[in-house]
Amino acid sequence: MGPVWRLIKGQKDMCHRCGREILDFPAVGRVVDFQFRAEEAYCWDCYRYLTPFVDDIAPESRDPFQPVTKPAIP
Ligand SMILES: [Zn+2]
What we know:
It is built from two helices and three strands. The model has no long low-confidence stretch (mean pLDDT 78). By secondary structure, it is mainly beta. The longest helix is centred in the middle third of the chain and has 7 residues, at 44-50. The relative contact order is 0.30. The chain has helices at 44-50, 54-57; strands spanning 4-14, 21-32, 35-41. Strand 2 and strand 3 (35-41) form a beta hairpin. The structure holds zinc ion. Zinc ion (ZN) binds at residues 15, 17-18, 20, 42-43, 45-46.
């Protein structure tokens, strides 16, 4: 399965691009053993900036946000 975007909620991380602290953020990663593993996370400003290039980051992702059906970390 290719890279997918997920909306991560209730976790703090740092934006991969600008280093800002983020909470409830879009992340791109892969689903391994039915669990999402984020590879890069972004703040909303950077996500907006990256949107035109989302296909490069996640070429197999048609819908930028896959439905989140279970917590990223149980
Ligand atoms: Zn950022």
